[in-house]
Amino acid sequence: MRAIDLTFPKISGRLGCFDELKGIGILLLLLYHAGGVLVWNNYLHGDLGTDVFFLVSGLCLSLNASRMEVREFVARRVLRILPAYWIVLTCYAVLNQVFLQHDYSPANLAVHYLGVHALFGDAWGFAINDSFWFITAILFFYGCFLAMRRLLAKTDRFLLTAAIFSTGGALLLFFLDQSGLTGRWGFRMIDFFLGMLIGQGFRTGRLEIPLTPVLGAALLILLYVPYTRGIVFHPGVVALGVMGAYLLALRPWLHRTGEGVRLTGTLGWLGRHSLEIFLIHQPLMREYNRYLHGRWLNRAEPSDAELIIGIALSLAVTLVLSAELHKCTRWLVGKIAHGPMAAAAGPTGRKESQSGGEAGGSGDEPAGRERKVVQADRPSRGKAGAGSSPAFPAESAEK
Questions:
Q1: What are phi and psi of 158, to 5 degrees?
Q2: Domain tally for the chain?
Q3: Are 48 and 242 in contact (CB under 8 A)?
Q4: Is 164 within a domain?
Q5: How do the residues of the chain divide into helix, strand and coil, expressed in percent and rounded to 5?
Q6: pLDDT per residue as tens digits for the range 94-103
Q7: Which of 1, 73, 88, 99 is 20 to 30 Å apart from 142, CA to CA?
């Protein structure tokens, strides 16, 4: 045997289950951050939500943007991510200075607006909002995607490159003693590349992994080298287990009942707004929760019950603000992208979304256009492993 040959259900377009997976990811993170406010033990390991985002991001980009022109890809990604980020960044930079008496240098603000603040370590990566490091990480992954997408056809070389990036990034942050970024980003770089590989399998219907010396070197660099420093890239594997359990077991069961369909719809809504929720929720849940208890209620050390009430209110505010911010940025993107997108759509005046979803956000199609959800293609008869998958049932088109 000279290669491992895996077959996948061949799919294309944007499936609603990807939004639902991001919904699960943001729920896990909300539980994780709420437990941090309450100083509860992290039994659920809600930090796996970050792994889910990175996996889904790589998967969807590989599935839908592997052949997209670089200029179009950059325009879509920038317009999807940065407007919402800049709005939330500006709000928190002002509010933190007014209410929390935080002071930010012009250089700190400049690198934040450029989205590269996490490259300057924990001190600046978490200076304004603990969630903003994600912007640097996802912009980095976009660059990796553009540089590595052509290697997807040569799986062993792709894995070697992914191993070098993942191990090199994790060890660099580790030796620079940036513990916050090491845990949040360094240990999870491999997730995005693993998602890319899975997306390639779904896009082409098969994934061939040649058993070559290049693959052996990739495994050594990815598994053994970081292990010499006690680093094991295991969270992504656990997150894959959570995603598989939802797609293969829980989701088909939920779709048998009306209540279950409503629940998957709620998860899908959370997934489509996950970028905005991720950017907004943490300071409200933590710093401003304690600030309001101390300023308005004169409670320097609020009880768990009082903090839980504050967390619930902050989540309600987060959801409302996220929905409005999502509408605002979609309208803004639609205005900016109307000309180029209309030209790219051809004579029909409509264009199917090519981006799929990515970590922390819905697709980036312009506002006012139809977003079409495409169901899985049926594999050809007689192919090994052919057949429809219950994880990807037919999806109805949605606006």
A1: -60, -45
A2: 1
A3: yes
A4: yes
A5: 65, 5, 30
A6: 999 999 999 9
A7: 88
Looking at residue 110, its amino acid is: A
Instruction: Decide: 132 and 85 in contact? Cβ < 8 Å.
Output: yes
Identify the H or E element spanning 207: strand 206-210
Question: Do residues 289 and 34 touch, judged by C-beta distance below 8 A?
Answer: no
Nearest to 290 by CA among 268, 305, 273, 307: 307
pLDDT, average across residues 136-147: 96
Confidence of residue 388 (pLDDT cuts 50, 70, 90): very low
* Domain enclosing residue 297, as ranges: 3-345
* Strand partners for 208: 5
Q: Nearest Cα to 360, choosing from 133, 172, 31?
A: 133
Which residue's structure tokens are 């109307």? 338
The 8-class DSSP code of residue 399 comes to -
CA atoms within 13 A on the CB side of 190: 27
Percent of the chain beyond pLDDT 70?
Answer: 84
Contacts of 382-388 spanning 24+ positions with Cβ under 8 A: 383/7, 383/205, 384/7, 385/7, 385/8, 386/7, 387/9, 388/9
Q: What is the DSSP string of 111-165?
A: HHHHT-GGGG-HHHHTSS-TTTHHHHHHHHHHHHHHHHGGGGGSHHHHHHHHHHH
